[in-house]
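User: I've been trying to design a sequence by hand for this structure and keep getting stuck. Would you show me what you'd pick, starting by listing the structure so we're on the same page?

Assistant: Good idea, let's start from the same input. This is the structure you sent:
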């Protein structure tokens, strides 16, 4: 089977879902399909070298400037595939589209619980590490106006997805406090981040170092504020990450789409930076 034939089967299989969501075909070639509508835009891209099909989407269609997020990747080997395999891949994409773009029923946020924080005492004693739920809980305590958004995140995905929440809501708030907050507000922010970072899992360290503070992108004024309040343990890694996020190159793309990782206590972000930069 040729990949273009697989795409024809996928396009046909996705017709009903696309119609329901108001999507229509925007573009397509031998290695990709692009669909868009008022709700956003998505594309299916085939990499002939790796035989990987990527499903990518964005809620805003900005043409050539659209910033796509990779949602999933699947192995698809055209030379060994048949119609059934193409339809199966289309079903996977269809499920992702429905999950991302279909309107969800209104959720009673009063019934949704905030993510639970790990005990400070247990974290300090090394019994258990802070995790992303702890970060969400502490962030909501520090900034109560974001509790509903945290709950919406939990309701939408069945668990707290830190990258999604912080990219959309949390990180802009952090950057605003760094830029425009009072010294007292800035100190409280970095005290909270520093505590969780120092006794946190690998995952929560990456969220703080990359998804949140990495968005300072080495801005001199923001870095100067951060340096006033960051702990020594966190400062070095954050500086290394910001050297990378300040650049618009292939390392930046890796930071936006980091590889899967296993939580591991006290993993230094220098290691993460070196892995991302290929050192």
């Amino acid at each position: 089977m040729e990949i273009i034939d697989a795409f024809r089967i996928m396009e046909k299989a996705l017709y009903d879902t696309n119609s329901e969501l108001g999507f229509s075909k925007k573009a397509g070639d031998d290695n990709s399909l692009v669909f868009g509508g008022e709700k956003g835009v998505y594309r299916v891209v085939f990499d002939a070298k790796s035989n990987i099909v990527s499903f990518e989407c964005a809620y805003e269609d900005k043409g050539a400037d659209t910033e796509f997020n990779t949602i999933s990747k699947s192995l698809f080997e055209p030379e060994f595939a048949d119609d059934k395999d193409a339809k199966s891949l289309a079903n996977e994409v269809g499920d992702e589209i429905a999950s991302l773009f279909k309107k969800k029923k209104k959720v009673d946020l009063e019934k949704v619980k905030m993510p639970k924080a790990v005990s400070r005492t247990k974290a300090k004693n090394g019994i258990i590490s802070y995790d992303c739920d702890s970060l969400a809980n502490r962030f909501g305590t520090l900034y109560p106006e974001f509790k509903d958004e945290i709950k919406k995140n939990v309701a939408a995905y069945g668990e707290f997805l830190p990258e999604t929440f912080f990219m959309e809501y949390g990180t802009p708030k952090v950057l605003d406090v760094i830029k425009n907050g009072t010294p007292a507000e800035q100190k409280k922010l970095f005290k909270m981040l520093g505590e969780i970072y120092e006794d946190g899992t690998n995952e929560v360290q990456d969220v703080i170092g990359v998804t949140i503070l990495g968005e300072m992108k080495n801005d001199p004024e923001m870095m100067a504020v951060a340096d006033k309040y960051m702990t020594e343990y966190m400062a070095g890694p954050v500086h290394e990450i910001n050297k990378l996020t300040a650049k618009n190159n292939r390392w930046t793309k890796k930071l936006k789409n980091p590889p899967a990782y296993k939580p591991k206590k006290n993993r230094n972000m220098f290691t993460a930076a070196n892995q991302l930069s290929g050192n």
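That's my pick for every position. To get oriented when you compare it with your attempt: The longest helix spans residues 83-101. Residues 258-279 have pLDDT under 50 and may be disordered.
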